[in-house]
Amino acid sequence: MTTTGEERERGFDHTEIEPRWQRTWDEADVFRIDDDETDPEYVLAMFPYTSGSLHMGHVRNYTITDAYARFERMRGESVLHPMGWDSFGLPAENAAEERDTNPRDWTMQCIDSMRDQLTEMGFGYDWDRELATCEPEYYQWNQWLFKQLREEGLVERQAAELNWCPSCETVLADEQVEGEDELCWRCDTPIEAREMDQWFFTITDYAEELLESLDDLDGWPNNVREMQRNWIGKQEGASVAFEVGDYGEVDIFTTRLDTIHGATFFSLAPGHPVAQEIAQQNDEVSEYIEMAEQADEDDLDVTSGVFTGEYAINPATGEEIPVYVADYVLTDVGTGALYAVPAHDERDHEFAEAHDIDIVQVVEPTDDADADPEAIDVQEAAYPEDGVLVNSGEFDGLESAEARDRFVEAFDGEHRTEYNLRDWGISRQRYWGTPIPMIHCDDCGYVEVPDEDLPVELPEFVHTTGNPLDAADEWKHVDCPDCGADAVRETDTMDTFVDSSWYFLRYTSPEMEEAPFDAERASDWMPVDQYVGGIEHAVMHLLYARFFTKVLDDLDMVDGVREPFTNLTNQGMVLGEDGNKMSKSLGNGVSPQRIIEEYGADTARLFIMEAAQPEKEFAWSPEGVQSAHSFLQNVYTLVSAYAEGEAGTAADTGNGADIADYVAREIDATAANATAEFEELRFNHALQAVRELVSLLRRYQEATTPDADTFERGLATAAKLLAPVAPHAAEEMWAELGHDDLIAEAEWPAAEAPADYGMERQLVENTREDIRDIVDTVGIEDPQTITLAVAPEWKHRVLNLARNADGNVVGTVMQDEELREQGEAAADFAKELAGRAQSLDEQLPPEREQAALERAAWLVEREFGADVVVQGPEEADPDLVGKAGPGRPAIDIAE
Ligand SMILES: [Zn+2]
Ligand SMILES: [Zn+2]
């Protein structure tokens, strides 16, 4: 960057002003909110994982919430804008291993450093409400809530498949399994799958409500709602029982009961109780099940399966069909059993081909379908669409939908709804998380840790190959709370998504010692009004937080709050300069720290907010950064020059009054426009409006001696509109303008566009465009005088009649007595308008049109270097006036 000595002297030094204003805000408690505030605006960013350093994605995320929070605060709202730390998780354990420290010390160090970085960015948080999920003061409530959920019947032990290292004899987290070969991260032994009992929250109990209430979340992006709908995956179908060998009836679930006559085999999941029973008699089945249990769920082979030697009776046909155990049938989906129709299901088709099973068509396209029935060969490929039944006995000719309905009764089935959503397994075999408050006693089974013994605090970190909690012998062995016998603590910790499922409630009363949060305050302050974070949380975090909120309402802990986040924004990615995702390997990352040092936090914030709307991704651009930087310096220079009296202070008269009038209207319009854009989080549009205002003020100063009040109001408005995004520079400008208070607490500029502003702006733009056209077309080198003549009153009258005439414009016009006096001219003008009667805009009346042009004349004078004369219809040359229309003044240019 090249700066002349004078500019440097004039501009501000971000290294000096930014820390100074940060201290001032802090001392003035600008961002603190009192507990007794009523229903504040709750603005929240998803809290960061404590990696130790902020990246550009964080900077963007937090700039959005900070700018919005500051905007709302200046509008007089009380604002809750807290910050905390998602500080449990495996990376801290890894870091502790690498650095020969422990997860706690490492995490606390990361928090300190990230807090400093957030402060340096100028983000205004109520630090009194800071929380860290790894503190016992926080995670004791995870434990307490676990017990509450258990009391509600929402906690279960269920079997789940885990990664097992046979050499380390320990369970591994997914992140501890490395590479395509799936090797243990410590010893490189290939991992095995092992089924073990785990703790689950039965979120499926809330599946229907979680799905249905998505429809009412109007403030959420549609794609996120759709992702949640798909994740919940509601399927309406039916269940029917098949008699399987000597094993009795087995229920199946299907959404395609219409195809039941085409069932040619029957499949059981390896975990299905009947499959397990068969395995006891059948070695082949038993071997297959063992193999399937050890395989990873991800490499399901659609054709893998084994014939059991058993047959099932199809209730529709009475025929026997072979029974297979196949691992493409998932134990936990539907009933874990299904009848297979290879003619109409692609997966069944593949399996049938591999095992040489019959394929029988029972549905063909309807007459009005695009497909030609003759062209369909189900031996070649499945036909999965609905259609008309064939080979279905007395039901031939029925349409699929009707058949599905009739068959439920015909075959003794029942209507049934299934969901893809699974229960939420929360057990993690790792150290750095919330200990699950359970104790296992040989006699009593699982016993809860009594409330008075909470929190169950983590013991000292143990360096071990396995789970450190398992190795913490002293911690692990306790007396059974029920019978006093020797017992063992649960050594699994909770999924860290439990921590983030309710942290937004804790911010309302972070010091609360008797409960996770103050129910009354939380009920008043919730839901979060504006929640901002990454799209990667569309399903897990956002679904779990919704689940928790509903449960807490059912526990009477939040009164009637059933959704946690009213409005949700997912910020887009900040890409590297090359348009790729920022990454170490590409070397295209930009460090926030470096940008702050070189240009200041305001520049980084302004650049990011100007680059794109929050949801859109954009590429880092050094030119954009430079432009943001110069803009701030330029506005500041304009302000300080004015403050030093260089801009002149005399209130002008004559022509000057018109200009001041024009500028005043633009100031009001800018404030109104920017306010509307801020409300919708379209910061880039708001900032564009500010840039235009500043450019106008500069031209104003160049054109004449500005009216002091108007000019100062313009500068103050620009500073205020910049304050949410570039808060330090804005404070500096505010102080230069002589204010003792903080702009962060100043009043947002009154935001009402002047009457008819839109029409006036259009008029001025069109007129300037017309002048440019004439100058270009005629080739005028040096215009001396530009005369603008406004159309007479009667043409406005014609326009208004034409706009409201239904069809017969000329007739309507000529019925008007006053207009008839204009004779031929009125008829001609009416004909001209009749051609485009549909697209006639309302225009300013003649005297207002004249005034608007007089106000804007200075801009035309500056652009063309010519004198501008604005004339009313009476004073102008009749020939010229004859060419004028409403909103389109006649133009004469003299060289
Ligand atoms: Zn290992
Ligand atoms: Zn016991």
UniProtKB/TrEMBL annotation:
Question: What UniProt keywords apply to this chain's record, in alphabetical order?
Answer: Aminoacyl-tRNA synthetase, ATP-binding, Cytoplasm, Ligase, Nucleotide-binding, Protein biosynthesis
E.C. number: 6.1.1.4
Q: According to its UniProt record, what is one Pfam family this protein matches?
A: Anticodon_1
- Which Gene Ontology terms describe the biological processes this protein takes part in? leucyl-tRNA aminoacylation
Stretches assigned to the Methionyl/Leucyl tRNA synthetase domain:
42-180
**Limits of the Aminoacyl-tRNA synthetase class Ia domain:** 420-618
Extract the Gene3D superfamilies matched here. Class I aminoacyl-tRNA synthetases (RS) (3.30.2320.20), HUPs (3.40.50.620), Isoleucyl-tRNA Synthetase, Domain 1 (1.10.730.10), leucyl-tRNA synthetase (1.10.10.720)
Q: Where is this region: Disordered?
A: 873-895
What domain of life? Answer: Archaea
Q: Which residues form the Leucyl-tRNA synthetase editing domain?
A: 229-409
InterPro entries membership:
aa-tRNA-synth_I_CS, aa-tRNA-synth_Ia, Leu-tRNA-ligase, Leu_tRNA-synth_edit, M/V/L/I-tRNA-synth_anticd-bd, Methionyl/Leucyl_tRNA_Synth, Rossmann-like_a/b/a_fold, tRNAsynth_Ia_anticodon-bd
Question: A cellular component term (GO) from this record?
Answer: cytoplasm
- Report domain Methionyl/Valyl/Leucyl/Isoleucyl-tRNA synthetase anticodon-binding positions: 663-778
Keyword ATP-binding assigned to the entry: answer is yes
A GO molecular function annotation here is: ATP binding
Class of this enzyme: ligase
Residues passing through the membrane, by range:
none
Q: Which reaction does it catalyse?
A: tRNA(Leu) + L-leucine + ATP = L-leucyl-tRNA(Leu) + AMP + diphosphate
- Similarity comment: family membership: Belongs to the class-I aminoacyl-tRNA synthetase family.
Name this polypeptide is given: Leucine--tRNA ligase
User: Its gene?
Assistant: leuS
